[in-house]
Each structure stands twice: as C-alpha cells, then as structure tokens.
C-alpha cells in the first residue's frame, strides 16, 4: 500500500504508549489518523499534535465503536489502515493463598470473561467493523488491496508468566484469529497481521521504573539484545512497514529483542 495523505487510519489506544507511537508514525508519513480512546485529555492532545481527530470510544461497546468509525470517516474518509492497540484485561494466579482465610482461593471466572471481552471480542469488533468499511471501498492498487488491519498481541501469548492466564489467553486468542481473518478477507483485498511486543517502555512500565528501579533494571537486563526495553517508536516503525508491505499477510510477528521469559 502506498502510504501518503490519500490514506486514512484508525488507531485504538492512540492516546498513549504503543497506540500513540503508531499514530505518530503514520501521521509523520502523511496518513490522516483518527484516534480511538477513552482518555479524552490524552487523545485530544495527541490528535492536535499530529493533525488528527479524536473519537472517544469504548472498545467493549458495539454502539461506541460504530459511532467512532462514523465520526472518523466523516472527517478523514474511509480508513484503509486499522491499528488496534487498546485492550481491557485482568490478572491474578489461578489459585492463590488468601491470608485472611488462611486457605486457598480461585481467581474468579469473571476475570477470564473480562479479558475475553476486552481482548479477543474487542479485537474482532474493531477488525470486523473496519473490514466492513474497507470492503465497500475501491481497491488501492493493481493487487486489489483495499486495506490492512494490524492487531496488537503480546509475547505473553506464547510466553505467559505467572498470573497471566487471562491476559496471555486473551492475546493467544488474538494470534489464533489472525490467519482465519486474513483468509476470510482475502477476496476483498484486506490484509490482517498482529505484532507481539515484548517489554516496552510504555507508561505502566515507566511507572515501575519510578517505583521499583531494581525490578525495572532486571527486566531490561533480561532482554538478550539490545539490553533495554523496547521503544514505542520501534513498534510504530513496524506498524508502518506492515502497512506498506502488501506481501505481509496472516502473520504474527514478535518484536521483543529475542526475549524468552522463564516461569517465575
């Protein structure tokens, strides 16, 4: 896909972290960007900085997502790139010791359901509504490409740690969605890929650096090379390449400095 000012994109979670880096990378390449996020202050700030549009969107709400796409298309036209970074999840060990009762307790099923809705179901919701809009648009090139969808999974989908049953399972479901989605959409010329980031210097991780520098340093040292956390702009760079390169399709790409975390 030729990346220029004729192309529009939707980026979920674009108010901060990996979503913000994706929005900035696309905007720097000339793309018109709509940011979907619940953080109005942060989303509006990023939108102003990149010349984009902010849409307050709750990814767990069908009506909110539909309204967000409608607003984005009214301002920027039909999106040809969808980058889905936003999520809602939970955590906790399956079985853990309860100091209050002196016995063991189970992580409630509702925690898994919340992650399933906020990761897997929300990913389908964002991807399918984007694909429906693209399906009714004219092809962009001689390959018949109409657009691309880039989802955010995680290295934890293949390398989940203690307490990551809900998160790792939800992201694993995203991985499993990629190839069937790509095949569902192949006749429409819509590509689907996912990025599996490792440990990145996003706001939550930078908060760890402030509160527990030893833990932060240990995480950095655990990356084979380079021995640091990933930079959000490195994620944004891959988003740009996955958008440009029409032969990238049906792939789950790890971006993690070769980290493979042992269970702890």
UniProtKB/TrEMBL annotation:
Name of protein: NAD(P)-dependent dehydrogenase (Short-subunit alcohol dehydrogenase family)
Coiled-coil residue spans: none
Domain of life: Bacteria
Keyword set includes Oxidoreductase: yes
Record keywords: Oxidoreductase
UniProt-listed Gene3D superfamilies: NAD(P)-binding Rossmann-like Domain
SUPFAM superfamilies in alphabetical order: NAD(P)-binding Rossmann-fold domains
Pfam families: adh_short_C2 (PF13561)
InterPro entries cross-referenced by the UniProt entry: NAD(P)-bd_dom_sf, Sc_DH/Rdtase_CS, SDR_fam
Organism annotation: Erythrobacter ramosus
